[in-house]
Design goal:
Blueprint: H1 2-15, H2 69-84, H3 98-118, E1 127-138, E2 141-150, E3 154-164, E4 167-175
Antiparallel strand pairs: 1-2, 2-3, 3-4
Length: 176
């Protein structure tokens, strides 16, 4: 009999229609007629971060940087191999900016999907490096075009290097 009473008591608590919590009192909120200038409306909205001159990427003049031609040639070779699937993209991450890395990652994924759809295995591409044309549009920046000749086609690889943090980094790479 005692067990039956406990079950009835428990079921009455569940079936109760009384609210479990008391409702919150209503608050009459009227927004300010004119927003204050110079202050932020809440803690969530913050001013946009402006990198400090000591913590952001530091531009480096061309005189303080090594010859860019070997880097352009090696970076071009690596990019062609990355797109062919023969080299890991992480191997060139140090020499490219985040935007270039994301662009190459997208191109690598698309190339891998195309290869798998066609059933082609990953093979190391055979190609020869053609002429390299360099120009310096401003101090600390170099733009280059490298001609790459493969078995079936000839491509041009456009590279923009900028001197950041006392070394060259690729800020744009396009395989045409």
């Amino acid at each position: 009999m005692g067990v039956y009473i406990a079950v009835l008591t428990f079921s009455r608590e569940i079936m109760s229609t009384e609210p479990l919590r008391k409702p919150l009192p209503s608050v009459d909120y009227t927004p300010p007629s004119r927003p204050r200038t110079g202050t932020l409306p809440s803690k969530i909205i913050r001013p946009r971060f402006v990198p400090d001159e000591f913590f952001g990427h530091q531009p480096t003049p061309s005189a303080d940087l090594p010859d860019p031609a070997p880097l352009v040639e090696n970076l071009t070779r690596c990019v062609i191999e990355v797109l062919a699937g023969a080299r890991d993209l992480e191997q060139i991450a140090r020499w490219v900016t985040d935007d270039v890395y994301r662009h190459l990652l997208k191109r690598t994924v698309l190339s891998a999907r195309a290869r798998s759809a066609k059933g082609q295995p990953i093979t190391r591409p055979s190609f020869t490096m053609g002429s390299i044309r360099l120009c310096e549009p401003r101090d600390g920046a170099v733009e280059a075009v490298v001609i790459v000749r493969g078995r079936a086609r000839t491509r041009a690889v456009a590279v923009r290097l900028e001197g950041l943090d006392k070394r060259w980094r690729a800020t744009a790479i396009n395989v045409l």
